[in-house]
Amino acid sequence: MYEITFNLKKLSFDLTSFTEENYLKIIYLLTERNNGNEVSTNDLAEQTQTKAASVSDMLRKLADKSLINYKKYQGVTLTTDGEKIALSVIRKHRLWEVFLVNKLGFGWDEIHDIAEQLEHIDSEDLTNRLDTFLGSPKFDPHGDPIPNSQGQMPSVVYHRLSEAPLNKEVAMTGVSVHSPAFLQHLDKLQIKLGCTLKVLEISEFDKSLNVILNNDSSLFVSYEVAKNLLVK
Amino acid sequence: MYEITFNLKKLSFDLTSFTEENYLKIIYLLTERNNGNEVSTNDLAEQTQTKAASVSDMLRKLADKSLINYKKYQGVTLTTDGEKIALSVIRKHRLWEVFLVNKLGFGWDEIHDIAEQLEHIDSEDLTNRLDTFLGSPKFDPHGDPIPNSQGQMPSVVYHRLSEAPLNKEVAMTGVSVHSPAFLQHLDKLQIKLGCTLKVLEISEFDKSLNVILNNDSSLFVSYEVAKNLLVK
DNA sequence: ATAAAAATTTAGACTAATCTAAAAAAATAT
DNA sequence: ATATTTTTTTAGATTAGTCTAAATTTTTAT
Question: ipTM score of the complex?
Fold first, then answer.
C-alpha cells in the first residue's frame, strides 16, 4: 500500500477569496462599461445573480478591506488594490480561454463557464507558465485584451460595425456580447475574428446591413448583430 | 464601450461540492492504503486538516446523501456513488499533474497544490479533451495510475525497493510519498520514474542500500528512501 | 473483568454569504 | 416643491462548514 497522495494545508476551499474575486472582477468590467463611473448596487446584484441586500453587505466588507471606494447610496469604484486583484482574475480568465480554444479545440461559444472556474486557480507561477506556453497572447478568443503580468490592461479602441462608414473595409476584432447564442450565430454567418467586412448599405426599414465578407461574399446582418461586432 | 464579458449562472462557488469531493477523495485514498478497510474519523481529521468533531458532522451529511457507508464509531467506506465521485476527482487531479509537468515544465515536486485546486473544475468535456490532449496517459508524474473516463482505476501491483531481491534489476515505477522534500531528494540522487535499480547490499547497521542506478553508477540510499520507492 | 485511555459523537457557538421584509435615501414626475 | 417611485441599506434569519468542550463509546492494559 502506498501513502496518501496529498498533504492538504487547508481542506476547505477559501470561499471568501473566490467570492471577493468575483465581485472585484465584475466591478472592474461594469466600471469599464460605464466609462469609469461608479457601479450601482442593482447592477452588481444583477451580474452576481444575487439580491441588492447581499450586495450591500458585501460592499461594506470589501470597503473594510480597502478594495473598493464606497459611499453609501453612491455606488462603487475599485481602489488600486482592488483593481490589481480584478486584473489578475481577468488575465487568468482570458489566458485559460485561449488555452481552451487553441489547445483543446473548444469553440468560442463553449468556454465561458469553464474559464469562470479556472480564473480562480491561485498560482502566479502557473499563470505565467501558461502565458508562455500559449505564446503570450495579447487577445482572448473573443478579441478581448489580456492584461500583462504587471497587471496592465492594454487599452483598445473599439468601433461598432453598426457605426462603420459605408464602403470602407474594416477588420473584425471583437464582440461585445459573449452569449453562446450570439457566437453561434456568428459561426453560421462565418464571421470570425480577423475577417474583413465592408458595409454597402443600411436598410431604412430595419437598420439591417448589407455587407461584404472577406472581400468575397455578400450577406445581411441585423442591427442587433452589427451593434455587437467590434471592428477597426 | 462593450458589454460585460460574462453571464454568471451562479456567482458563489459551490463550496459544498468542493468540500464533499475532498472528503470522498480522501476516503478513497485512505481506504486504498488500508487494504479496503474502513477509514477512521481521526485519520480523516488529520488528512482534512480539521477536527474529529467536524469530520463526524460531515460523515453524517455524506451518509445522508448515500455517498458513504457509515455506522457510528465504526469508520466509513465509500458507496458506489461516492466512489464514482472520488475517482472522477482523482482522475482530474492526476491528468492536471501530467499537464503541469509535461506541458508547462513544472517539476514533480511543485505540482501538488495546484492540482489540488484544478481537480475540482467541473466539466466532463474539459477532462476528456485534456486527456486526449495529453495522449491519454495511464500514469501521473509520480507513477500513480489514472482512472479512465468510465471511472475505472487500473490495478497496479507495487513492490518497495526496500524489499526487492538482491542483485536483481528492477524499474522505478512510483513513489509512495509525495512530499516536495522527498521528491527533491530523489532529484538530487537522479532517481526518476523509469530508471533501473539493482540492490547490491543492505547495511546491517542502518538498513541503507547500496544500489546500482541505470546499470551504471553506484549509490547509497537510506531505508527511508528505499521504503518509499516503488519498483517492479 | 474492569479501570484507564483513546476515539468518536453531540451540544452549542461562530463565520461567511446569502435571503426576505422593512426602513431609509435618492431620483423622478407632475 | 412635493408626492411617488426606485434604489439602497438595515434588521433579522438561514445554511454550510468549522470550532471547543463535554458526553459517550470503544479499545487497551492490567
Answer: 0.92
